[in-house]
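Example record used in the benchmark description.
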Amino acid sequence: MREHRSWLELLIFCTVMTSLVALLLGILFAGATLAFAANPTADDNDNSPAPQHFSGMITDSLCGARHSAKFEKTPSECARMCVRNGAQYTLIDGDRRYELRGITDELQRAAGRRATIVGVLQGDTITVSSIGAL
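Model output (structure tokens):
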């Protein structure tokens, strides 16, 4: 009778252990699945705003559309000088003023001229992706 009982105990022990291992693996895989589902990749969260077109005068934040005649410089030269002294490139479109960020070399070439800007507007700042002449 003792032999039959030990086989029965071994069978119950193996069944319980197998069930516990299966349960733990199920919990582990379910947790991993939830962790990956809760942390989407950057491609799934592409909520960046679309680029827009803006037209106006590229100038600097200090002088705006009216450059000082006392420096005897062209609007382009004045805007570049002001930016070198700490001002920001600015696009003026009627009553609207936008601070320009990004491709500084192209902004420097277009300073003092009317242009079309392609970029992303956030608040009153445009992150410039391209500049075209008007």
